[in-house]
Automatic annotation (TrEMBL):
UniProt KW Manganese keyword: no
Signal peptide: 1-19
Name listed for the protein in its UniProt record: COL6A
Source species taxonomy: Eukaryota, Metazoa, Spiralia, Lophotrochozoa, Mollusca
Taxonomic source organism: Mytilus coruscus (Sea mussel)
A Pfam family this chain is assigned to: VWA
Keyword set, alphabetical order: Signal
Domain VWFA: 96-280
Length: 299
């Protein structure tokens, strides 16, 4: 039985949500049906709480993106300049990050631009300064490669095509929108091949994948045939945009490394995605021009 309070909360949640132009998944609405007649059970109290506060959810995603992806420790070390690493520091501190960009028809070219903008901005928050992606070893460096996919998979740049963050941001900006289907399995297959020294990947670095997607796969190789190989090569993170039925959430969770909650970052819509970088900046505060990673923990 749905109690009156529960119903009111759900109706309020639906109203808030529809005002924001965000579509509720069918499963949640189905709970209005007669439960004895095979309707879905209504959301639990915890789920109600989630629906009640959009602010809470986006802030939780911001925190998670900072703590689990961008850095390992936010506390600034005031006795050393932010994020400085020495030439002698081990290469094991750095990452070779592969970005997998969903370019399918559901995004549309306008939202694709937002996604690209946010990725470039996120990368600019990586430490060490002055340029976390400088190929000049003295300044310490990460590398990034990018592939995009829809019905096809396209390599845009590999790990050593760009020499600094400005080149990387420009390269991301110029990635053309494809449109088409969502062959995620094909993208993962290509991703496995990208982790190869012939693509500028280094041995001894952290090998990471960040996939940005707004939907589940609807074409291409079965995911179960490619994910084990990818997980063996790299730590996989996902930034997901939208809300999905339980089967969709399960699929998206299967993309990422374990423990799942540490590797999946969800925003409900493109409006929230557009806010992400500003909220991250606000959270780390003006004292941190970049997000220091833990130089000591990972040696
Ligand atoms: C996010 O992190 C800040 C600072 O650590 C904390 O005050 C806040 O409660 C966190 N918010 C959520 C939703 O986790
Ligand atoms: C902070 O930086 C100083 C100087 O680089 C270093 O000696 C010290 O170990 C660092 N402290 C922590 C907690 O990492
Ligand atoms: C790396 O790429 C080369 C050239 O494309 C290929 O011959 C080799 O098998 C690849 N190595 C791995 C481990 O996939």
């Amino acid at each position: 039985m749905v109690d009156l309070y529960g119903l009111i909360v759900l109706l309020l949640a639906l109203q808030i949500v529809s005002n924001e132009g965000f579509t509720f998944t069918k499963e949640k609405v189905d709970c209005f049906g007669n439960p004895d007649n095979g309707g879905e059970p209504c959301p639990t109290d915890t789920e109600f709480k989630e629906y009640r506060s959009k602010e809470y959810r986006i802030q939780a995603t911001v925190n998670q993106t900072i703590n689990k992806f961008l850095q390992k420790r936010l506390k600034p070390n005031f006795s050393s300049p932010h994020g400085i690493v020495k030439r002698a520091d081990s290469i094991g501190l750095f990452r070779d990050l592969l970005i997998i960009l969903d370019s399918s028809g559901s995004l549309g070219s306008r939202y694709f631009e937002i996604v690209k903008q946010q990725i470039g901005d996120l990368l600019s928050l990586f430490c060490p300064l002055p340029d976390a992606f400088s190929s000049n070893r003295r300044f310490g460096y990460n590398r990034v490669a990018l592939i995009q996919f829809s019905s096809i998979v396209k390599e845009e740049f590999d790990f050593d095509d760009n020499r600094n963050i400005l080149e990387i941001k420009a390269a991301i900006k110029s990635v053309p929108y494809l449109g088409g289907m969502t062959c995620t399995g094909d993208a993962f297959y290509k991703a496995v091949q990208m982790f190869n020294t012939s693509k500028g990947m280094r041995e001894g670095t952290k090998h990471e994948v960040l996939i940005l997607t707004d939907g589940t796969a609807n074409c291409g190789k079965p995911l179960s045939t490619v994910l084990p190989a990818l997980h063996a090569k790299a730590t996989v993170f996902a930034l997901t945009i939208g809300s999905f039925p339980a089967s969709g959430n399960k699929e998206l969770a299967s993309y990422v490394s374990k423990p799942t909650p540490d590797h999946i970052f969800a925003v409900e819509n493109f409006q929230n995605l557009q806010k992400l970088w500003n909220l991250i900046k606000a959270q780390i505060g003006p004292l941190n021009p970049c997000i220091p990673f833990d130089l000591y923990k990972h040696k």
